[in-house]
Amino acid sequence: MSLTWDNCLKIVIRPLLRLRLPALAIIAAVGLFVEWAYWFFVQDLIDPKQYWIQLSWFLRFPPVRFVEFLLGMIAAAALLRGWRPKLNLWLALSTVPASVLLLWWGAQQGWWGAHWSQQGLVPACVVVVLAAAIRDISGRPSIFRRNLSSPSAPGPTPSTWSTCRSSTG
């Protein structure tokens, strides 16, 4: 088996689909903790004179992005197992600017550095993706269902979600 994106998705999603929801929640919490702990320790390693140059390297360091990928896969696995939290898409979208304001205010108070914006936005972005996916699954209108290349073409339907489960198992 060659190492392609498709195979990587299968390697990660298959074990996740076998887990129960509490185990998925624990893995997600540990993932967030690992990402936040990583940034807590990285800030001591960055030279203030070369802050943005060194920070850009840490932002591209693959283990950091893997945690975000894993959180997305956990959310997808939970949805495929039938988890449907009651999330309003517009309220979920409002968590992003609210998180930005909270992160800015916390940085102004000296509670954390300004570079923590990435970690602080991860939970808000996961909530937005979950709310949009739940809206899509339920068949309700969604701005994300449109095919951008052809506005009149229909987008994916809730029935196409079943193909994801059958192709992974």
Features:
mainly alpha; 7 helices; globular; disordered C terminus
Describe the structure concisely:
The chain is mostly helical.
How would you characterize this protein structure?
The chain is mainly α and 169 residues long. Helices cover 69% and strands 0% of the residues. It contains seven helices and no strands. The radius of gyration is 18 Å and the shape is globular. The relative contact order is 0.12. The model is unreliable at 165-169 (pLDDT under 50).
Mean pLDDT, to the nearest integer, reads 75
Shape: globular
Strand content: under 5%
Give a count of the beta strands, DSSP E runs of length 2 or more: 0
Walk me through the topology.
Blueprint: H1 5-17, H2 21-45, H3 51-59, H4 62-80, H5 89-109, H6 117-137, H7 161-168
